[in-house]
Amino acid sequence: MNILCINTGSTSLKYEVFDQNHVSTLKGEFGSNDILDRLIEELVDNSMQINDFDVVVHRIVHGGGQYIKPTHITDDVLNNLKELNHLAPLHNPPALKVVEEIFRRYPDTIQYAVFDTAFHDTKKEVAKYYGLPLELQKDLKIQRYGFHGISHNYISDFIRKQYGEDQKIISCHLGGGCSICAIADGKSVDTTMGFGPEEGLIMGTRCGDLGAAVVLYLIRKGYNPDQIENILNQESGLLGLSGVSFDLQDLEKIKKILK
């Protein structure tokens, strides 16, 4: 089975091709616009077409608690996922746009979704819910979903294969987005990210843990939800604190210069 794996981010696309022996034969990454066209061009340059693959697998950030395992993307599934766009507005929409465009151009393509939130569905309720009225949370689907599940799951599987199944693991996903996950016997017990990906650790442009009073204060000062969302996700973290960059390499260079 030949597989094309696609990871569509808010501003970039990563892909990797695996042959029938699960051996990686091609991979790449690029940003900017027209990312699907660029992917198609790169595949063509390597004598491949999207409809040559037995299955195309997408990383989708948010499954909303509804999707907790790899899922065949049908029209109904695609429509359901669009209803979750508000839960991951920076990541789900561009990923689903690529899914839709592949269906438009290659309607017979079999596509699957693997969800970042799915790995954390094993958390007990005490780790899933906030200290808000429980009925309110269940009614509005508010919970600590957690993210980076595909990464944490991979780390867990790797460690357990190396050192045995019965392992307690602290997994750290550190990049532009950062999260830590406590894992026992291959299952997520707790994680630093919650309802949104801006919770937990201070990240590249995300704020990390923040008291609700700060958000309420910004609202009272006249900031609207879109502005606040942009501040928390795009203007905070290392970028906001340094006023220069979210890249640690850049900040280390600046630090040496200032010394």
Features:
single chain; Nucleotidyltransferase, domain 5; 3-stranded antiparallel beta sheet; alpha+beta; 10 helices; 6-stranded mixed beta sheet; 20% strand; 259 residues
Condensed summary:
With 259 residues, the chain is an alpha+beta fold. It has helices spanning 35-45, 75-82, 92-105, 125-128, 134-140, 149-163, 212-220, 225-234, 237-242, 248-258, and strands at 3-8, 12-18, 24-31, 55-60, 71-72, 111-115, 168-174, 178-184, 187-191.
Report what the structure shows.
- The strands form 2 sheets. Strands 3-2-1-4-6-5 form a 6-stranded mixed sheet. A 3-stranded antiparallel sheet has the order 7-8-9, with helices on one face.
- The radius of gyration is 20 Å and the shape is globular.
- The chain contains 10 helices and 9 strands.
- It folds into 3 domains: 3-115, ATPase, nucleotide binding domain (Nucleotidyltransferase, domain 5, 2-Layer Sandwich); 121-201, ATPase, nucleotide binding domain (Nucleotidyltransferase, domain 5); 202-259, no CATH class.
- It has helices at residues 35-45, 75-82, 92-105, 125-128, 134-140, 149-163, 212-220, 225-234, 237-242, 248-258, and strands at residues 3-8, 12-18, 24-31, 55-60, 71-72, 111-115, 168-174, 178-184, 187-191.
- The longest helix is centred in the middle third of the chain and has 15 residues, at 149-163.
- It has 259 residues and is an alpha+beta fold.
